[in-house]
Amino acid sequence: MFASSSSTQERNRTVRHSRKLAPSFIALGNNTNTDASMGTLQAINVTSSSVANAVLEAARDIKAPIILQVSQGGAAYFAGKGLANDKQQASITGAVAAAHHIRTVAKAYGVPVVLHSDHCAKKLLPWFDGMLAADAEYFATHGEPLFSSHMLDLSEEPKAENIAHCVTYFKEMAKYNIWLEMEIGITGGEEDGVDNTGVDNNSLYTQPEDIYDVYSALNAISPNFSIAAAFGNVHGVYKPGNVRLHPELLQKHQAYAAQQLGGKDKKPLFLVFHGGSGSTKEEIKTAVTNGVVKMNVDTDTQFAYLSGIRNFVQSKAGYLQSQVGNPEGPDKPNKKYYDPRVWVREGEKTLSERVKEACTDLGNTSALFIFPSFSNAMVIEDLFYQTAFKGCLPGGSEIWFKAGRNKAVCITFYHVITFGTLYFCRNSGSYDIKLKLKHCTTIQNHD
Ligand SMILES: [Zn+2]
């Protein structure tokens, strides 16, 4: 319909002239649109292949793109608690192992995955260095880094030092198209017992000027970064009620940055929501509206993983006391109850359900159209008319849009995300090509 007959030739020409390497992390978040219904990715901490698989299973079942991340401790656990970790060697090995595991199995689940590493404080920098070395090695062979993205958290250091470290690392990371997540302001912290309700204090509530300083320093290197700003977030260490979440403060950061930048882009910042466990639906919605592109959940999914196992062990207690002999008779075997594939599986199921809930809170269900054999230069006319389009296309795919009257626009996707597919979204209403061109620097626009 909108693709005229002459555009076939144009498309072929496009294929030849627009190849360019894309970053391995795709920034999501409908940052220039006030519709908060989509665009934020759920990030789940994984500590074992069992946890990772359960998260991928959830993402597949609800057709959601997802972020799998390892913390420093979680990575060490992935490699095994029996390993020494005095030089971060277990955390490095475990992070690399997790990345390879996820890369391998994610293809089978068929969902876009962003591979990320969580908080890295100053004293843990050897862990960060180890992962970067693995990224560089993987890049040399595959043309993409092992991880999509890493977090550097120097929020406990003075601001100037925090930013200076981020700049140094980000310059290196940019060579490999790695996304940086940084933190400024304190998530949680030492304010326990102090009622911070409604208070804009500097430690638990990052100030707009600080955010903009970070933006200015990092944007000079690459647009592929996000900022975890404190708005009263906690990591599950506080008693409820001591610190209040104020996701509405994020709007101030966006407005201040927009004003400094000239105001064309109303939400120039990619923001990250830490300590998402226990948040109300309203808080999540406000955060998403204000440009949060990634939300972390760990505590709630840990508890969910336990739940299924706990329920199984409690309800089958009579079958778990010996290898033979249960309430059905003294000679009855119990193998089908004590096999880890049975009871661990119960934890995977409850974890998976919690992940689905988390993605649903962010509006990420049924988010993907997956085209395993999508051919180059194919026109997907229908998708243009979807009111809420999100697509997952293999690298090299092209998709054509009508942009303006009688004008066809081609966007070519080249490899991205962890297994060669790229996640792309468009919100309801008019297609916003400016957003994509701005934040996904590698996407080519032809008209
Ligand atoms: Zn965090």
From TrEMBL:
GO terms for cellular component: cytosol. SUPFAM superfamilies: Aldolase. Its EC number is 4.1.2.13. Its cofactor is Zn(2+). GO terms for molecular function: fructose-bisphosphate aldolase activity; zinc ion binding. It catalyses: beta-D-fructose 1,6-bisphosphate = D-glyceraldehyde 3-phosphate + dihydroxyacetone phosphate. Keywords: Glycolysis, Lyase, Metal-binding, Zinc. Gene3D superfamilies: Aldolase class I. Pfam families: F_bP_aldolase. InterPro entries: Aldolase_TIM, FBA_II, Fruct_bisP_bact. Binds 2 Zn(2+) ions per subunit. One is catalytic and the other provides a structural contribution. One of its GO terms (biological process) is glycolytic process. Pathway: Carbohydrate degradation; glycolysis; D-glyceraldehyde 3-phosphate and glycerone phosphate from D-glucose: step 4/4. Catalyzes the aldol condensation of dihydroxyacetone phosphate (DHAP or glycerone-phosphate) with glyceraldehyde 3-phosphate (G3P) to form fructose 1,6-bisphosphate (FBP) in gluconeogenesis and the reverse reaction in glycolysis. NCBIfam families: cbbA, FruBisAldo_II_A, PRK09197.1. Belongs to the class II fructose-bisphosphate aldolase family. This is Fructose-bisphosphate aldolase. The lineage of its organism: Eukaryota, Fungi, Dikarya, Basidiomycota, Agaricomycotina.
